[in-house]
Specification:
Structural class of chain B: mainly alpha
Number of helices of chain A: 12
CATH topology of the largest domain in chain B: MetI-like fold
Largest sheet of chain A: none
Oligomer: heterodimer
Shape of chain A: elongated
Shape of chain B: globular
Number of domains of chain B: 2
CATH superfamily of chain A: MetI-like
CATH superfamily of the largest domain in chain B: MetI-like
Structural class of chain A: mainly alpha
CATH architecture of chain A: Orthogonal Bundle
Distance between the termini of chain A: 31 Å
Chain lengths: ~290, ~325
């Protein structure tokens, strides 16, 4: 009996989903490979699918065209993957900018203190007092729309959360015993920043950046959908969906359903990536 | 007396906020490369002579320095005049008033529905922590948080308007009927899908929050004590849980007005519902600066009111921090 039951725990440990850490690593791997797949396919897929082919227009999904074809006979799978790649690129650029703004402003607020801190807190309050979409539309309008408008509006409206987080973190670290001890020992401010602050801030920054992606991509798609973002010559997912609206009443459901679903899956994998990395990097949950 | 002080404090804060916001928004808008005269003329570009353009610019005072323009705008705004919308050719106040009435019906329906539904789902999930039901609710809520609002609206449109033909495809009234003249039944019929979209999206946040709070309440000392006295699970939730989670849920729902407004912009766009959201999009697309400024200020008041009400409800309901102290 005993030699029958002994190998069981060993076997259990070896399966991929046996503990939290392995589950987390698998989730990270899966999300990353799915996102990589979108980018690679978006680049590599035969561009012939984008050509007008009037003999094959408005076809429902088949094996040859898994996402169907549109009113010009273009393959919707190719268009969707291209669109997702554009949205992904815009989302990545915008959230990277936004995270950098958040980091700088958070640092400035916490280290300079005084009136700088007051002004920054006020600006953050002002941003939060507006509905997010109204702020996006206002800033996109200020930058004259287009690609710059989208990137600027998404970058300039998403930094507040991270800035608050970084500010709180730095303020807390500054009063920590070991930091004060370092100061008494005569360490320079730069030494303290490098050895005591950065190790805490870098994970916060990376996770904050990753958790910005889903919001950035959803908002990019949103303002592109309402027509303030990219032009029809840059067919991001938002454009594809907004063009599909004209053809929905004729019953061509696949023009909207499948591209939107792909967008949802992409946003969800970014979300999974960020949440799982956070669980891994946060000392409170990393040992679970 | 304390209530009066609370209101006065909030009003003062709102006034400061609006002044700062109007300055920031005005500065931003005057930086825009979109020329308001060109945006106003639109397709008639070729038929308008340079002299006429200069006249329009002169009449709108566009040649004055921005600070002077801001002061003039502010002076008029204080008298209740936010200028004239160039796309609707009506005073901005009138446009916002009319549009907001339409949006208010939509938003309040969605607000109530998502609150009740989200709270119920949260209680069911939190009360059965770890059960399949809990997993389903959590998965559903997290997926909703990643769902583009406009895509959900399109899906509902495909299913209920195009395939089943239960609901109309667009607008706030049947074709050929003015929205003001539509019957109550017709209005509700046109409101159903946009309201459903916003309700479904709004459920996620409140359900997750309620679930979290209920789990925390059920793990508390007083819950343990009640269990030791022989209280059953649902009796415990009814007696002790709901009381403690209702207040945060109401607060959260009031604080979610900002997202509700954003969602209504997207939903109104899909269903061509003539509300404030659609006006916001038009103002941004066609460079209607006075209307855009008006909507920025109005939406800030809207969000601020939501947050202030959340604060107020805390003070009125919660015996621990009730206004007026131990009276």
């Amino acid at each position: 009996m005993s030699d029958m039951s002994l190998p069981a725990p060993v076997h259990r440990l070896a399966t991929p989903f046996s503990n939290r850490r392995r589950q987390t690593l698998w989730a990270i791997g899966l999300s990353l490979s799915f996102l990589a797949l979108i980018v690679v396919l978006g680049q590599r897929l035969d561009p012939a699918g984008l050509d007008t082919n009037l003999q094959a227009r408005n076809q429902a999904p088949t094996w040859q065209h898994p996402f169907g074809t549109d009113w010009l006979g273009r393959d919707m799978l190719t268009r969707t993957l291209r669109g997702l790649t554009i949205s992904l690129a815009v989302g990545v650029i915008a959230s990277a900018l936004s995270a950098c703004i958040g980091l700088l402003i958070g640092l400035a607020s916490a280290t300079l203190g005084g009136w700088v801190d007051t002004v920054i807190t006020w600006v953050i309050d002002m941003f939060l007092s507006l509905p997010h979409l109204v702020a996006l539309i206002l800033i996109a309008f200020v930058f004259g729309g287009g690609l710059t408008g989208v990137i600027a509006s998404v970058a300039l409206t998403h930094w507040t959360g991270l800035a608050r987080l970084i500010r709180a973190e730095v303020l807390q670290l500054k009063t920590a015993n070991y930091v004060q001890l370092s100061e008494r020992l005569g360490r320079s401010r730069i030494w303290i920043a490098r050895h005591h602050l950065l190790p805490h801030l870098i994970p916060q920054f990376v996770v904050g950046l990753l958790l910005l992606f889903p919001h950035a991509i959803l908002h990019e798609a949103g303002i592109t959908f309402i027509g303030i973002g990219l032009s029809p010559h840059q067919p991001a997912v938002g454009i594809i969906l907004s063009e599909s609206m004209r053809h929905l009443s004729t019953g061509y459901w696949w023009l909207a359903a499948l591209p939107g679903l792909s967008l949802l899956v992409m946003v969800k994998s970014f979300d999974a990536l960020g949440e799982n990395l956070r669980a891994l990097l946060d000392p409170k949950t990393s040992q679970e | 007396m304390k209530l009066l002080l609370f209101v006065v404090k909030k009003l003062a804060r709102l006034a400061v906020l609006l002044i700062a916001l109007s300055m920031a928004a005005f500065a931003l808008v005057s930086l825009s490369p979109i020329d308001p005269v060109n945006a106003y003329i639109g397709a008639d570009m070729l038929r308008v002579s340079p002299e006429q353009r200069a006249q329009i610019a002169e009449r709108w005072g566009l040649n004055d320095p921005p600070v002077q323009r801001y002061l003039r705008w502010m002076g008029q705004a204080l008298q209740g005049d936010l200028g004239t919308s160039s796309i609707y050719r009506q005073p901005v106040i009138t446009v916002i008033g009319q549009r907001f009435t339409a949006s208010l019906a939509l938003m309040s329906a969605a607000w109530v529905l998502s609150g009740v539904l989200g709270f119920t789902l949260g209680v069911l999930a939190g009360g059965n922590e770890g059960s399949p039901l809990d997993r389903v609710v959590r998965w559903f809520a997290y997926t909703l948080a990643a769902t583009p609002t406009f895509w959900l609206a399109l899906l509902l449109l495909i299913v209920f308007s195009v395939t089943l033909r239960w609901t109309p495809i667009c607008c706030a009234a049947p074709p050929g009927v003015l929205p003001e003249e539509a019957t109550l039944l017709q209005r509700i019929h046109h409101l159903m899908l946009p309201a459903a979209t916003l309700s479904i999206i709004g459920v996620a946040n409140i359900a997750l929050h309620t679930r979290q709070k209920l789990i925390a309440a059920l793990h508390s000392d007083y819950a343990l004590f009640a269990t030791a006295q022989g209280e059953k699970r649902w009796g415990l939730i009814w007696q002790h849980g709901l009381r403690n989670i209702a207040l945060p849920a109401i607060t959260l729902q009031f604080a979610s007005l900002s997202e509700l407004f954003g969602g209504s912009v997207l939903a109104e766009q899909v269903f061509t519902y003539p509300g404030l959201g659609q006006a916001t999009v038009q103002a941004g697309l066609r460079g209607d600066v006075p209307l855009l400024m008006g909507i920025v200020l109005f939406s800030a008041i809207f969000v601020f009111t939501g947050n202030a009400l959340a604060d107020l409800i805390y003070h009125v309901i919660d015996p621990r921090i009730r206004l007026g102290g131990g009276a």
